[in-house]
């Protein structure tokens, strides 16, 4: 029996290309299965202990177990198979290249995953920050490529020199692109805006920040349309961020009543309706006491502003809508008149006109 297994082992070790290929496939499959199970258990334990999203960890390490399993299978097969020198050298370099690729991919995924986890914890509305992920991937993969060239015996010093000279020419040719890139990085690092913030530009565009990539910032407006703005414009324009320092904000609703109205009654009824809307409609701050402030004697009405408080600036539309509807119905029941615009025109007879 021992001789039988020894003979089989000797055939496998000294077998031909087909035998070695089958052995490599079996070793890689076993490596992938074992690493996949280990990674799953490890990620579940990390998610429980660190309160990290398990789907986010899965996304971060997607493909890593398979790549490492293939690398381990190749390394294991090389240890006990008898392979001719030239194919052996090729396979060793292939294993080295796969090792460098695995490390670069793992570092890039960890960097991107850390950023996503950080923004997910700091933002109620999670959005992507592809500019930072792109920069991290570009840096890590570039370094990995240089190490790969070095492992094949290719000197990278002339390449670095050429890249330095060529980089200057590229920088001059791509001034606008690089300006947008560094403007986006500066905005995120300075924390002027973050994903999910509702902003309004001086040029009139407004909406929620949903993404910032290497060239532009994407804003979703109230009509669910995407407004794409270059990062350079975001960094140089006057911008109002309604989410900082607090997401809650106050809105003013102008109202006008007849001069014959009892202003004390008007103030009481208006405050009751405003309080009711803030407490019952989603988006209102129920603990806020509405403010009524008379503003002016207009041509046909006494005008005042009703100050309401909303959780986010995008909630103002529903709150304003419901408040106007309920206030109009309540005024009708209470006999409070919202006057039509009135203008008195005095007609005087013409003087000095001759009659025919």
Can you lay out the helices and strands and say which pair or pack?
Elements: H1 2-13, H2 17-50, H3 54-60, H4 64-80, H5 85-122, H6 130-151, H7 157-173, H8 175-190, E1 198-201, E2 206-212, E3 216-220, E4 226-230, H9 231-236, E5 239-241, E6 249-257, H10 263-280, E7 291-297, E8 302-310, H11 316-334
Antiparallel strand pairs: 1-2, 1-5, 2-3, 3-4, 6-8, 7-8
Helix pairs in contact: 2-4, 3-5, 4-5, 5-6, 10-11
Care to describe what's here?
By secondary structure, this protein is of the alpha+beta class. The chain folds into three domains: 9-124, no CATH class; 178-241, SH3 type barrels (Roll); 249-334, Alpha-Beta Plaits. It has eleven helices and eight strands. The chain has helices at 2-13, 17-50, 54-60, 64-80, 85-122, 130-151, 157-173, 175-190, 231-236, 263-280, 316-334, and strands at residues 198-201, 206-212, 216-220, 226-230, 239-241, 249-257, 291-297, 302-310. The strands form two sheets. The chain has a five-stranded antiparallel sheet. Strands 6-8-7 form a three-stranded antiparallel sheet. Helix 10 crosses helix 11 (316-334). It is elongated and about 120 Å long. The protein starts with a helix and ends in a 22-residue tail after the last helix.
């Amino acid at each position: 029996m021992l001789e039988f297994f020894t003979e089989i082992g000797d055939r496998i070790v000294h077998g031909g290309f087909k035998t070695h290929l089958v052995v490599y496939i079996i070793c890689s499959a076993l490596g992938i299965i074992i690493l996949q199970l280990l990674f799953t258990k490890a990620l579940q334990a990390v998610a429980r202990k660190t309160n990290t999203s398990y789907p986010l960890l899965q996304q971060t390490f997607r493909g890593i177990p398979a790549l490492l399993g293939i690398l381990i299978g190749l390394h294991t097969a090389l240890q006990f198979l008898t392979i001719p020198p030239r194919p052996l050298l090729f396979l060793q370099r292939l294993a080295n290249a796969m090792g460098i690729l695995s490390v670069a991919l793992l570092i890039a995924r960890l960097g991107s995953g850390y950023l996503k986890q950080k923004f997910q914890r700091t933002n109620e509305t999670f959005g992507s920050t592809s500019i930072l992920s792109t920069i991290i991937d570009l840096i890590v993969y570039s370094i990995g490529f240089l190490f790969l060239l070095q492992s094949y015996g290719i000197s990278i010093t002339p390449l670095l020199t050429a890249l330095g000279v060529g980089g200057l020419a590229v920088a001059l040719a791509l001034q606008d692109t690089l300006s947008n890139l560094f403007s986006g990085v500066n905005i995120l690092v300075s924390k002027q805006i973050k994903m999910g913030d509702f902003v309004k530009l001086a040029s009139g565009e407004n909406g929620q920040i949903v993404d910032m990539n290497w060239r532009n910032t994407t804003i979703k407006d109230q009509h669910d349309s995407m407004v794409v703005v270059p990062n350079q414009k975001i960094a140089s324009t006057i911008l109002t961020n309604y989410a900082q320092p607090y997401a809650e904000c106050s809105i003013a609703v102008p109202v006008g009543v007849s001069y014959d109205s009892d202003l004390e009654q008007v103030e009481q009824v208006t405050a009751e309706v405003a309080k009711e809307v803030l407490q019952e409609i989603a988006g209102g701050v129920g603990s806020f006491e509405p403010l009524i402030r008379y503003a002016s004697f207009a041509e046909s009405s006494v005008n005042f502003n009703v100050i309401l408080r909303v959780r986010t600036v995008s909630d103002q539309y529903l709150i304003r809508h419901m408040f106007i509807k309920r206030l109009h119905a309540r005024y009708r029941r209470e006999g409070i008149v919202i006057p039509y615009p009135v203008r008195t025109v005095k007609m005087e007879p013409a003087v000095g006109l001759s009659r025919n």
